[in-house]
Specification:
CATH superfamily of the largest domain: Spore Coat Polysaccharide Biosynthesis Protein SpsA, Chain A
Shape: elongated
Number of helices: 10
CATH architecture of the largest domain: Alpha-Beta Complex
Strand order of the largest sheet: 7-5-6-4-1-2-3-8
Strand content: 5-15%
Length: about 300
């Protein structure tokens, strides 16, 4: 059995050497392959990853020409790995490599995908809040099991990898691809450590982009919610119209109020703007997809001697 460890790298020059050495040591008894994807890092991660590919014969270093995002980088790694199972792990040491064996042991019981879950998370409070919101939305939009935590640290079996890499859209969401490919999913508790270097690369803007990828690319429920809001608003407006008419007939001396009109106009305008924004996301991303926007562009692929 061959194990591929896929590592998306972004500004990870200070940690990736130690991570690769530790993965190599921990998985020494395995037929191991390590795939590094440098996602347009702004530091010297490209040079460090290429040096690792020269040092270790089982390391492949892929450099992308610009930053495409974590999920694009992971999909690139999955498309180039050759293992029977692929373990996806970040470059920041928050998931100790020793925990890969726990996920792999569970996967060998026959599961297609095994996610990690944590009793205590060491993320920043904003990142934890974003993860909670992402979990709620994934449950509502993607029919994710409520007890499943969608972590970035996971192990995927080859048949599901083959299904995932068939996706050619420019805005992949790995967990969405997994959930629509299989229901054979498990999870195990692992340790979660604090970052050893720097800070999280998931800014608020990146989290919003990730949520939009999930909403727009993998579910039509937002469109259905918009339709439902429109129906409810129309019904409410009809009822309020009858109420105001009856009130006017019973109390003709009551002066008309501009406040209620202003509130209704702003409320309906807000709903319309929100609906147009969601529709615009669908239309815009469909346009970019049809226009052939790439998932990634590769600058170089390095292995020892090549």
């Amino acid at each position: 059995m061959k194990l591929s460890v896929c590592i998306p790298v972004y500004n990870g020059a200070k940690t990736i050497c130690a991570l690769v050495e530790r993965v190599t040591r921990v998985c020494a008894s395995r037929n191991l392959e390590i795939v590094l994807v440098n996602d347009g890092s702004l530091d010297n991660s490209e040079e460090v990853c290429n040096d690792l590919a020269e040092k270790f014969e089982n390391v492949t270093a892929i450099t992308l020409r610009k930053n495409f995002g974590q999920h694009n980088a992971v999909l690139c790694a999955l498309a180039h790995c050759t293992g029977d199972y692929a373990a996806i792990i970040d470059d920041d040491f928050q998931n100790p490599p020793e925990e890969i064996e726990k996920l792999l042991t569970e996967a060998l019981k026959g599961f297609d995908v095994v996610y990690s879950k944590y009793r205590v998370k060491k993320h920043h409070v904003i990142r934890n809040l974003g993860s909670w919101f992402n979990d709620v939305m994934a449950t509502a939009l993607l029919r994710k099991p409520k007890d499943l935590y969608l972590s970035s640290f996971k192990v995927i079996a080859r048949p599901i990898i083959n299904e995932i890499v068939k996706y050619k859209g420019p805005f992949p969401y790995i967990d969405g691809l997994i959930l629509r490919a299989t229901a054979s999913i498990s999870s195990v508790y692992v340790e979660h450590s604090a970052r050893e270097e720097g800070h999280s690369n998931y800014t608020l803007g990146r989290l919003v982009n990730l949520w939009l990828n999930m909403f727009v690319n993998f579910s039509i429920r937002p469109m259905r919610v918009i339709s439902l809001v429109g129906v409810v608003t129309s019904a409410l407006s009809f009822v309020l119209g009858i109420v105001f008419l009856v009130q006017r007939i019973r109390h003709p001396e009551t002066p008309p109020g501009w406040a209620s009109i202003t509130v209704l106009v702003l409320f309906l305008g807000g709903i319309q703007t929100f609906a147009l924004g969601i529709i615009g996301e669908y239309v815009g991303k469909n346009y970019l997809d049809r226009n052939g926007t790439p998932q990634w562009t590769i600058k170089s692929i390095r292995t020892r001697g090549r």
